[in-house]
């Protein structure tokens, strides 16, 4: 669990730091060739690269999550038991609702036949 939180924290920090660093570098002419760009072009290029950097960090985070072994994580048995009970309860309530609505429909059809 601590490893997951650590990876999430690191990815979140890079998602914040990478675009800010790119925008800072462009605005202070730290990248070669950025001084030759017009202000409009510099804004477009720096914004585009900042967005791309966030997407790269997200892709890297997804890759790291997919690379984790799935057998390493075992679900909590108490949680599983509670979830199964909840599903069974909602299923039985849904079946009871269907049976009740079916019996009501049959009763109304019988009363219509009696009126005729």
Q: What is the topological layout?
A:
Layout lengths: L1 H26 L11 H29 L9 H39 L1
InterPro entries: Vma21
Subcellular location: Endoplasmic reticulum membrane; Endoplasmic reticulum-Golgi intermediate compartment membrane; Cytoplasmic vesicle, COPII-coated vesicle membrane
Membrane topology: Multi-pass membrane protein
What's this, in brief?
By secondary structure, the protein is mainly alpha-helical. The protein has helices at 2-27, 39-67, 77-115. The chain contains three helices and no strands.
**Straight-line distance between termini:** 69 Å
- Could you spell the SSE succession in H and E letters? HHH
Low-confidence stretches: none
Largest sheet data? none
Query: In DSSP terms, counting alpha (H) and pi (I) runs of 4 or more, how many helices?
Result: 3
Bin the helical content. Answer: over 70%
Beta strand %: under 5%
Which class of secondary structure composition applies to the elements?
mainly alpha
Strand runs, count: 0
3D shape:
elongated
State mean pLDDT (0 to 100 scale): 80
Q: What would you report as the Rg, rounded to the nearest angstrom?
A: 30 Å
């Amino acid at each position: 669990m601590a490893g997951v939180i650590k990876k999430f924290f690191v990815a979140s920090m890079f998602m914040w730091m990478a675009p800010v660093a790119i925008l800072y570098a462009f605005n202070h002419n730290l990248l070669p060739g950025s001084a030759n760009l017009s202000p409009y072009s510099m804004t477009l290029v720096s914004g585009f690269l900042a967005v791309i950097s966030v997407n790269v960090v997200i892709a890297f985070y997804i890759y790291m999550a997919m690379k984790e072994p799935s057998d390493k994580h075992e679900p909590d048995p108490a949680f599983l038991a509670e979830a199964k009970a909840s599903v069974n309860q909602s299923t039985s309530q849904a079946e009871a609702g269907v049976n009740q609505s079916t019996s009501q429909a049959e009763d109304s059809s019988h009363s219509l036949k009696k009126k005729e």
